[in-house]
Amino acid sequence: AQSVTQLDSHVSVSEGTPVLLRCNYSSSYSPSLFWYVQHPNKGLQLLLKYTSAATLVKGINGFEAEFKKSETSFHLTKPSAHMSDAAEYFCVVGRAGGTSYGKLTFGQGTILTVHP
Amino acid sequence: SQTIHQWPATLVQPVGSPLSLECTVEGTSNPNLYWYRQAAGRGLQLLFYSVGIGQISSEVPQNLSASRPQDRQFILSSKKLLLSDSGFYLCAWSGAHGEQYFGPGTRLTVT
């Protein structure tokens, strides 16, 4: 079994300040972890993925996330927010090393607002 | 590179009418395919997945059905739409590490 909890439903930052979106997970297996971004009325775009390699994962658009097994966390960060980062973000857990048709479990999403 | 298409982009249908949404993937063979629904404020719900032609697994009992007539084609259907079928429908295929890549989505409004 697996689950994921996004600790904040809304996060608001000013442009140019750091972004932190928090995610905790639970999994009976070694997890694969992903962050996705969704802009209004668009599909989900994969930002980054952790698949049992380096614990610090770099993604697109300056985002990165660190897998911390002891804390069962996979928080998403960005040093400096841009207005275009305003969107909804989903933390997602799957099963590492499993088949490529493994089901994913999605968090409820965090809406990021960026103020000028 | 791989791309995924969905159509139509938006659809307004009356209650009781049929539905057909199509998803196609390019640039990969024998992909695993998924249909999700995203209702307002309710996150993503996996509806169906398919590991091959003619192989469909249903996650949620409802008045929707799915079919996979060709390797890279996935269709979501209904014989009679309900108001509760309104939502944003997303198709996805899965990569080598289990990550999924999503299409642009179809916004369905049932009136």
C-alpha termini separation of chain B:
38 Å
Q: How many helices of chain A in DSSP terms?
A: 0
N- to C-terminal distance of chain A: 41 Å
| Strands of chain B, count | 11
Secondary structure: helix percent of chain A: under 10%
Describe the global form of chain B: globular
Radius of gyration of chain A over alpha carbons?
A: 14 Å
Strand content of chain A: over 45%
Please summarize the sheet with the most strands of chain B. Answer: 7 strands, mixed
The fraction of residues assigned to DSSP E strands of chain B is over 45%
- SSE ordering of chain A: EEEEEEEEEEEE
Low-confidence stretches of chain B: none
In short:
The complex is a heterodimer of chains A (116) and B (111). Chain A contains no helices and twelve strands. Chain A has strands spanning 2-6, 10-14, 19-21, 23-27, 31-38, 45-50, 56-58, 64-68, 73-78, 87-95, 105-106, 110-115.
Question: What would your notes on this structure say?
Answer:
The complex is a heterodimer of chains A (116) and B (111). Chain A is an all-beta fold. Helix content of chain A is 0%, strand content 54%. In chain A, the strands form 3 sheets. In chain A, strands 2, 5, 6, 10, 11 and 12 form a 6-stranded mixed beta sheet that branches. A 4-stranded antiparallel beta sheet of chain A has the order 3-9-8-7, with no helix packed on it. In chain A, strands 1-4 form a two-stranded antiparallel sheet. Chain A is globular, with a radius of gyration of 14 Å. With 111 residues, chain B is mainly beta. In chain B, 0% of the residues lie in helices and 59% in strands. Chain B contains no helices and 11 strands. In chain B, strands 2, 4, 5, 6, 9, 10 and 11 form a 7-stranded mixed beta sheet that branches. Chain B has a 4-stranded antiparallel beta sheet with strand order 1-3-8-7, with no helix packed on it. In chain B, strand 5 (44-52) and strand 6 form a beta hairpin. Chain B is globular, with a radius of gyration of 13 Å. In chain B, 37% of the residues are buried. Chain A binds chain B through residues 32, 34, 36, 41-46, 49, 51, 90, 94-96, 98-104, 106-109, and chain B through 6, 32, 43-44, 46, 49, 51, 88, 90, 92, 94-105, 107.
